[in-house]
């Protein structure tokens, strides 16, 4: 699941943004968007919302935000800044350990056997520089809530067991765009991997519903 997918009417892929490498799932498990809908839809995961600019938001009729946030440090900023600084410092001398810890938290609460299979695959991808750049960006960057607020239909999904972006971020997002929050009891940060069927069903059923 890339952080941001931007699909136009009839399934035309407008943009396929920002593949980060360290969060690429098995292709068979990616959310499959139904191409029959004559609508413009955005699907973002995690930091993908950071790449939603005014141009993209202005054209969108639907936006599905998965495990998103406005500012990474909105919840318990002292703790999150400390953790991020520690990861950035550690990256300089032991990036493998930083990546492994990140993967452990990202894939929780998968069962251990499946978690290790996913982590083993992710470790084969050379993405250290990308993750390091993203850690630096998280310190400063934030979603522009006014862009999301201008999209007519916004839907927010978040796992209650998310160890990367706590689920309280979902409520902060919802306050800016009058969206319902769909909390997933046994979901972590990697919802496009662990709950792909549930997400795809909701997204496609909503996207394909008759226009008013």
Quick structural gist:
By secondary structure, this protein is α/β, with parallel strands linked by helices. It has helices spanning 54-59, 77-91, 95-107, 112-122, 128-138, 145-149, 168-177, 191-194, 196-207, and strands at residues 4-7, 13-17, 41-45, 62-66, 153-159, 181-184.
Per CATH, what is the topology of the largest domain? Rossmann fold
What is the highest CATH level, the class of the largest domain?
Answer: Alpha Beta
CATH superfamily of the largest domain: Alpha/Beta hydrolase fold, catalytic domain
Structural class: alpha/beta
Main sheet makeup: 6 strands, mixed
The helix-strand sequence is EEEHEHHHHHEHEHH
Provide the residue-averaged pLDDT. 78
Low-confidence spans: pLDDT under 50, at least 5 residues?
A: 10-18, 25-30
Overall morphology: globular
Fraction in beta strands = 5-15%
Helix content: 40-55%
Number of domains: 2
Q: How far do the termini sit from each other?
A: 30 Å
Total helix count?
Answer: 9
Gyration radius (Cα, Å) is 17 Å
Read across the widest sheet, the strand sequence of neighbours is 2-1-3-4-5-6
Would you report the number of β strands?
6
In CATH, the architecture of the largest domain is 3-Layer(aba) Sandwich
């Amino acid at each position: 699941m890339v952080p941001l997918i931007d699909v136009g009417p009839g399934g035309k892929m407008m943009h396929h943004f920002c593949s980060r490498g360290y969060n690429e799932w098995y292709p068979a498990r990616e959310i499959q968007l139904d191409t029959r809908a004559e609508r413009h839809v955005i699907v973002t995961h995690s930091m993908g919302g950071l790449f939603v600019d005014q141009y993209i938001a202005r054209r969108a009729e639907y936006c599905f935000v998965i495990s998103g946030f406005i500012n990474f440090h909105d919840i318990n900023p002292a703790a999150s800044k400390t953790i991020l600084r520690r990861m950035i410092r550690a990256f300089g001398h032991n990036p493998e350990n930083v990546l492994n810890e990140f993967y452990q938290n990202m894939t929780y609460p998968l069962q251990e056997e499946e978690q290790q299979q996913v982590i083993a695959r992710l470790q084969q991808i050379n993405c250290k520089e990308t993750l390091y750049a993203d850690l630096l960006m998280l310190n400063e960057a934030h979603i522009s809530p006014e862009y999301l607020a201008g999209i007519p239909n916004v839907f927010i999904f978040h796992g209650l067991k998310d160890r990367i972006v706590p689920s309280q971020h979902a409520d902060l997002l919802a306050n800016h765009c009058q969206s319902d929050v769909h909390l997933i009891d046994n979901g972590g940060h990697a919802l496009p991997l662990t709950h792909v069927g549930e997400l795809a069903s909701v997204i496609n059923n909503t996207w394909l519903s008759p226009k008013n």
